[in-house]
Structure formats: C-alpha cells, structure tokens
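Lay summary. Proteins are chains of building blocks that fold into shapes, and those shapes determine what they do. In this project we predict the shape from the chain. Here is one chain we studied, written as its sequence of building blocks.
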Amino acid sequence: MFAEAFRQHQAGRLGEAERLYRQILAADPRHAASLNMLGVVSHQTGRRDLSVELFGQAVAIDPDSAEYRSNLGIALQEQGRHEEAIASYRTAIALKPDYAEAHNNLGIALSGQGKRDEAVASFARALELRPDNAVAHNNLGNLLRDLGRLDEAVACYRDALALMPGYVEAHNNLGCAYRDQGMLDEARACFRHALGLRPGYAEAHSNLGIVLRAQGSLDEAAASYGEALALKSDFQEALNNLANLLAARGEPLQALGVVRRSLRIKETPEAKDIFVACIKPLRFKHLDEEVRAILVRAVSEPWGRPTDLALAAVALVKANPGVGEGVARASAAWPRRLSAPELFGPSGLAAAAADPLLRSLLETVTIPDVELERFLTMSRHAMLEPGAADSEASVLDFHCALAQQCFINEYVYAVTAEETVRARSLRDALAAALETGASVAAGQLVAAAAYFPLHSIPHASRLVDMQWPDAVNAVLTQQIREPAEERQCGESIPRLTAIDDEVSLKVQHQYEENPYPRWIRPAPIDKAPSIDVFLHRHFPRATFQPLNKTDAIDILIAGCGTGQHSIEAAERFASARMLAVDLSVASLSYAKRKSQALGLTTIDYAQADILKLASLDRSFDLIESVGVLHHLDDPLAGWRVLLSLLRPGGFMRLGFYSEIARRDIVRIRTLIAERGYGRTADEIGRARQDLIGGAASGGFTDALAFNDFFSISECRDMLFHVQEHRLTIPEIESFLEENDLQFIGFDLDLRLIEQYQARFPDDKEMNDLKQWHVFETDNPNTFTNMYQFYAQKPR
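And here is the predicted shape, written in a compact code that computers can read:
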C-alpha cells in the first residue's frame, strides 16, 4: 500500500496519495515513512503547521533518520523557526555526513540568519559531495554576491548554467551580479535571455528595467516595470522601481501613488526610502489623511533624514484647520503677540495639540517654515500666561514637544522684552524651588525649558529623581540627562594633533559654542557588502578600479561634526574600521553619545586638525570629508593632506561649497557684515528677524528657505561662519588632474541626474566635468547642497 501511495505521490496525485498514507497510519500509527511522506504532501499543499507536526512525529519514531530530520528542518525554516531548523539540519548531517541536500539546506538557513561564513562552508561542502548540483552552485552564488565577492558569484552562476543551461533563475542572478559590477550590457543580455526562456518571469522584467534606466532608456525601463506588474500586480520590487523612476522624471505625485500601493503590501526599507524621495518635493495644499498618517511615522521613526521630510510635513500641518487658522492669525498679527484666545480661536490649543504630525516634527527636526515658526513663537509666549501651567494632559504634551523644539533650534525664536522678564522670573523661581526642595509644577518646568536649557539652571539634576509624566521625562532626558552624558563622553575623547593654526582655532571656537548640526534621530541606511558594490549601485554608469576588498576596510571621516556622517558610514559599511576626527570636543561628544546609543562600536572619535593629520601613522581605503575643507584657510592644502593618507586605489568622498550656488548666501553674508551683526546667539536671532522682514525686498526669499536658517548653530554655520571658501567645477577639475585623481561622479538628487542625462546624452559615464560646468551655469541651483562627489586614487 505504501508503494502504491508513493507512486501516486510521484505522479502528482496528491489527494490519492494522502488518502493512502492515512489509511496506512490508521492500521499502523507508528509507520514513520508514511508520517514523513504525509508531511511532504502537507508541505506541498501549504499546510505548514501540519507538516511540522507530521515530520516531528516521524522523527520521534525514527530519530536516526537523516531524511526525516532534514525535512523537519525545511518545514521549521518556512515557519520562521530558523534556529530550530538549523539544529535539525545539523542533526541530519551528524547522522549522515555525506547528505549533500542537508548541507545545501543548512547553507540556506545559515545565510538567512546572517551567518554567512558558515553558510559558505555549508554550500561548499554540498558541492564537494555533489558537484553536479546546479541549485547549490546558484545558492552559493547568491550568498557570495551578498558578501560583495562578485567575481566568485559570477563563477558560481556560470557553473550552475553549465550544468543546467535552461536554469532561468541563474540567468537572472548572473545579470544581477553583472549589474553590481557595472557591466550593464552583460546584465541586460542575461535578463533578456531569462525572459526568452520564461516570458512571464516578473523578476527578470523588473531587473531589466533597472538596467535600462541606468543606461538612460527611461521609457523602456518604465515599460519593463509595467510588464512585471502586469504579471504580478502585487510585485513590490517592481512598484518600488517604477515609483523611483517616476520621482526621477519629475513626477512626484504619480510616484507617490505607486509607492503608496507598495506600502500597503508591506512597509519594506526600500518602499520607505522611495516614499521619502517622492514626498520631499511635494507641498500639499489640502489634507491627505493617508499620506499624513504615513508621514507621522516617517518623521518619528524615521524613514529618512527628517530634514528631507520636514517641508512636506509642514505643508500638511498647515493644511489642518486646527493649526492652519492659528498660523494665519499669527502671521497677520506679527510682530504683535496674541493672547492664547486670540491665537488659538474658539477651539483653543487642544486642536493644535491633537495634531500628531506637528508633535512629531517638534520632537524630531527644526521647523523650517517662517509662518509656522511665528505660530510656535506665540504658542510659547502663551505658556507664560496665568493658568497655562494647569493645562490638561494633551496640552501639556504639546508644551513638552514645543520645549523640545526650542532646545533643538537652540532657542532661536524671537522674544519681546516683557517676555524675557517673565521667562527669567520663571527660571529663577524654578531654581529657588530646586534649592529649597519645594514642589515644582510640571507646566512651570516645561515653560522654563522652552526658554532656557534646563541643565543651565542650578540644581536641575534633582529634577530627574522626581516622578513626572512621560512627556515631561522626555524633556528632562533631552535637556539634563543627555547633556550630562556628553560631558562624560568629552572626558574620554583623545587628542591626536595639536590645534594651533589661527583659522583652525577660530573654527574650533565656533563649533565648541554651537555643535553642528543638532540632529535627533538617524536615518536608516542601506548596507553595502563592499565599497565596490556601493559605488556600482550608486553610479551605475561609472568605471573605476575595484578595490576588491570584502573584509573590513579602513575609513577616515575628516570633520565628523556631531556624528551624523560617521554613523551613516558605519551603518553602510558595517565591518569597517573607522576613525572620525573633528576640531570640536563638544561636537565629538555629541557624536560619541549618539554612537553609543545606537550600539556602534566600530567608530573611534578623536580631536584633530586636518592640517596636522599627516603625522598619523595610518592610511585609509576611504576618506570622507564633506562640508569641512572649505572652512580651512586653504581648502586645497587640506585636500592634499587627506590625499597623502589615502591608499593606492582608495576612494574619497568630498564636499565643497559652489561659488555659483552660494551666490545669494554670499549677498546675505555681505549684508550681515555691513550691518555689523555679531556672532552671539542673540545677535544671530536679531539678524534672522531682520532678514525675514526684508527677504522679499532683498530678493533672497529662497535663500532663507533652507533648513539651516531655522536654528542658531545651523544659521551661524550658513551665514556667520568665521571662514568660508567656495570653489567652481573647473577648480575641482584642475586639482583632480594635477593629482592624478579619477572623478567618479556627483552625489545628486535623481531628478537632477535625469536632467543632466537628457542634456548631455553622450556623456555615458556622467563624469565630464566641463559639461557639468555648463550644466551648472545654466542651472545655478544644481549644487545648493554643495559639490558632493567621489574620486579615486590610482594604484
């Protein structure tokens, strides 16, 4: 009867096979072979829980069967019980060391758990036992590709195809490996071959679209994504690729519609990243509740750098009548301060306090909008009114968020003389209560925190030992606990070089007073298996010499500031060894605190002057210095120092201000110098208000829309810096030629890349700096965020 059941099973008549297996088990419940095969039928028909149960029963009856153990491992793995699956495979192998299939399955499970070196060994053993196993060759190729060992991956896929020329998945995977190597023509041929074998292969259509887009064939790429989606309407990767393409073509609303479909399927990191790219240029005039709900999470988690989400989020906040009407009243009355009833209207502050997107913004990023700033300035003023301290819980939560915003922007909001007197009186009363041990009202504490950092108030540390609502505790963490942690971090920062250059000392002083920038939450970063794969994915048309280094690389972040840059690099290249240096101990302390909070242990922070780094007895595979060298007395001298530390074949990522893009900033800096504003926080605040008032007549409204204008440290960095140089593309080109450096490409928004490709289609690698200079001259806002680019040192 078992033989007959097995024949029915092999013939694909699963129902009849299952009936016979169950008939056997009715006569002999301990017939292990029938339990095992019934488990296989259950697995094939999608009854995963039952398959695990049946395989488990078979193992219990015959614990020495390697086959039963391996089948149990497969079922456990599909349930997500990876560690149990690995244990089951290992037992099968212990029972039967030459069990090639179990070695292959163990490799798959180990790879899924991130145990990649062990997985490589398992696949290698499977192939040693069965060299003709095309599937194992393909699996090993996938793992090696993930590890960045692309040449080896290509060899594995070719071995698989030599054994099985019609192996469609291997053709597709070989195309992906070629794409990661920058071999776009070869990749395209692989995807087309896969589609010739299986025209309905949605994954190959989507991958072909990626290559076509990288080669500048946007319409063909869109058609490929469309083919993939016609075959599989819920194909998330194709949806993401299509949304990305639409965003790059300057169709953000259409792109947003596509990525919303993707997010409804699953909120993958890729979908979240594309949502950020789609939302960044949009300015909503009307409420869109679905986008609004997504944005709350995108800002607070966050899904990208919150600064990239802020302007779209602000537009949606202002579209909410509960906030927008108050914003309009504040703007109409400015600079006169409105009372709380005048400002908030009949619904009171509760309407604004109930806006979760506004609260997320307040707690996460500087608010980059003058109108909303004026509303918040008056909201803070209302906190000083009698009875404000006794507000209901939702209003207290809003006040706490506003206090956090004021700390983030370093108290940049304008204050009247009368307001200053009342705020100081409140601070003094709080200090007196802390000294005597008197009770402190939560509302009074939070109001004081909206005007002065709490750690600056005597005996403020006593506040952290008291019981407070969660929102108040968040303010205490931000303004007392975290600054205390930074002071401790500062004590352990080593000093690598002397700092005695006159300009370096001035720059150091600025950033000791105002560490820059005061970011709150790190953006998620796509991990890259190697610097070669990262650059090929980022610059698919560029050619460069592969570093061919898949183990830990050495990275120098020269001018790491408050750590945003170094942390993102450490997240991207997880196994790298990194040295991050800066002039300012205050900035380094902020960076170290943030790194410790994220559990990053691969970054060594140290104080040093770039000009003195030649004394280091170290060299690096990758050196990044973005927004730093242009603050030296001689930026090119600093660049030469860094170049001396770069290993042959190593890469540099650099960022310089553009002479063309900074033209309006230069006019404002000249105006500031002419009017004699100082560099203190009060003077910067006064200058900001004067500039806002005269922006339209001065013709620099756009320049004041930068995020950097909305906090003291960032405004000081942008408009009041003690030293600023600006370069042009011809100057950069000249330095690259003089020092035999290969230009790889500019790090730019996708929309700008597509515009350049359309203007200069003959520049296939997009690295002709003379043509880039023409493009910038015609499009002077191209590099408002600096020239950021990669270059390579020859071997």
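What the prediction tells us: The mean pLDDT is 93.
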